[in-house]
Amino acid sequence: MNTNKARRKKITALVIIGLLLLLFYGKNLTERQAFKNISNTFKEVYNDRLVVEGYIFRISENLFRIQKLVDHCNINYDYSKVIEEIAEHEKNITEIVRAFEKTNLTDQEAEFLADFSSIIDNDLQIKNYGLLYSDSSGINNSQVMLYDQKISIAQKDLDNLSKIQLEEGEKLINKANIIINRSQIWSQFEVALLIILALSLYFILFRNKKSYS
What we know:
two-stranded antiparallel ribbon; 84% helix; transmembrane
């Protein structure tokens, strides 16, 4: 009778140990996935947020240079190649925008970026410097003001895009913190499993020996 009872206890303990080992294995898989998610999250922060913020800065720099060339058309300066200079800055902006478009865009980002691209492609293409300034009539104030207004709208699009980077970056960091907190909870659960495993081994290896002695 005692032998059957001891055997049942041993089988029960072995079943518990088996279940605990399965839980350890599941916890290990969960932790691997958590680390993978954290890695992907920080990659996204870098590739789609920090790199993009660099794109926005470079676009703003080129846009500022275009505005400077437009607004300073009355200063003594060799403007024989000004159209080519403006076109070069617009080309730089277009290339950066193409790289921007390949990142993981939110709906808002896609909207602001499309509006910005439309302004660059359709409203800031200066084909003739005479539209801005001529020796006979001087500065074409209305045209300069029109270009300035379009540049201001384009800059607002960039400001909104920059704001989105901060918001989305904060969301990604919060997501990473949630994953880390879950991992810490699983670690505490693992400690509890180890205690249960140790007690199970104790009952198998020592309690049974005491009952037989």
